[in-house]
Amino acid sequence: MRQSSRQSPRFNHLRLLLIGLHVLSGALQVALLFPFGGSAGRQFLRQNWSRQLLTLLGIRIEAVDGGLSGVENGLLVCNHISFIDIFVINALLPSGFVAKRDVAQWPLIGWLCRHNDTVFIERGSRRAAHSTHQEMLAAFGAGKRLVVFPEGTTTAGDYLLPFHAALFQSAIDAAVPVHAVALSYHRADGLRSAAPAYIDDVSLVACLMTVLRTRGLTARIALAASFVPPLPERRHLARHAQHAVAAALAQSPNFAPTPGRPDFGPWIRGTNPREGSPQPLSNTAAIRR
Question: Class of the 59-288 domain?
Answer without folding.
Answer: alpha beta
